[in-house]
Hints:
With about 210 residues, the chain is an all-alpha fold. The chain is built from nine helices and no strands. The protein is about 75% helix and about 0% strand.
Amino acid sequence: MKTDDLIAALAADTTPTGAVALRRRAGLALIPAALLVLAGVILTLGLRPDLMIAMGGPTFWAKAAYTAALAGAGFWLLDRAGRPGAGLRTPLAVFGAVVVIAVVWGTVSLMLTPDATRMEALMGQSARVCPTNIAGLSLLAAPLILFAVRGFAPLRPALAGAAVGLMIGGLAATLYGLHCPEHTAAFVAVWYTLGMAIPVAVGTGIGRWVWRW
């Protein structure tokens, strides 16, 4: 029997009840993970002074919707990757669609911005620190999530690790919005996406170790 066949046979022993329990455990782990990230935002970065005003406008929620949607796509992808035989096409398609919409939205808005303010719309005031801040906040959530999903049996460990990275990156980016005053679509599409891409890349490598057979 080939190694891949053996892995598939072992993974196939995962029962539906076990899969539900693992999914529930991963979902519940998001609560303390979110609290840790929120504490990190408050204690190390601080909330934006105009937060209440910003929450009354559409741009704040549009940014949060983008990052939260990617966190949800990460959870969905992790669930599918952790269940042998579950299809990955739909969550991957949703993930791709969300990113494409953000990129197109950012590109169009940048093209419609006057030349004099185009660079400001793209770079804002915090382009240099935005990705690293999001990646750093992701580190707070990573141990809790990885511990919760250690019982998963993915046939593609690297993909499962990338899904974890996307989930915690989206979570961190969403809560980072409580500090970050940047609001242009171009800034979010470039720098927030890059910030979430860092934990995805790291998770891809870690996944091979966490779920090694």
